[in-house]
Amino acid sequence: MTYHLFSDTVRRAAKQHRCIWCGQAINKGDSYHDERSVYDGSIQRNRWHPECLDYARDDMRESGDQEFMPWSQDRPETKVVAGNPGMPPCRVCGGVASRQWRDGAFCGAHDTFFRK
Q1: What is the distance between the alpha carbons of residues 44 and 26, in angstroms, rounded to a whole number?
Q2: 4, 53, 73, 100: which has the fewest C-beta neighbours closer than 10 Å?
Q3: Are residues 70 and 102 in the same domain?
Q4: Do 10 and 64 lie in a common domain?
Q5: pLDDT tens digits for 84-105?
Q6: For the segment 6-39, what is each residue's pLDDT rounded down to a tens digit?
Q7: Of 62, 72, 69, whose CA–CA distance to 103 is shortest?
């Protein structure tokens, strides 16, 4: 299986899209990743929630398996934690994460998901 990523752009949704990982809606106004790639000779355009893409990349890196069924994975659970001192610092800015998932956190300043 061959895979080549051409672009991964963070965009703000002008209309509703569907996340390739979890199948849930990316609502108008939400930040999302617009990924363009070629997989086994087929051109692909996938849209991801930021937390789904980061979770998928970590999962693929750990397992070594690059394949998954579209719309079949769970979206990482979210809960807002405003200034929770127990949260790990953001890897980009060092600030406190704004949201927490079951096994990671999200820095809203960078639309970045990172594992604990």
Answers
A1: 18
A2: 4
A3: no
A4: yes
A5: 555 556 666 666 555 655 556 6
A6: 999 999 999 999 999 999 999 998 889 999 999 8
A7: 62
Residues 61 and 25 in one domain: yes
Amino acid 20: pLDDT? 94
Q: Do residues 19 and 26 touch, judged by C-beta distance below 8 A?
A: yes
CB 32 within 8 A of CB 17: yes
How many angstroms separate the CA atoms of 26 and 48, rounded? 8
For residue 113 the two structure tokens come to 């998901």
Q: How far apart are CA 74 and CA 7, in angstroms?
A: 24
Count structural domains, the chain: 2
Q: Which two tokens stand for residue 72?
A: 């079949």
Burial (CB < 10 A; 0-12, 13-18, 19+), residue 105, is buried
pTM over 0.85: no
Scanning 1-116, the segments in alpha helix (DSSP H) are: 50-63
Question: In whole angstroms, what is the distance from residue 78 CA to residue 93 CA?
Answer: 21
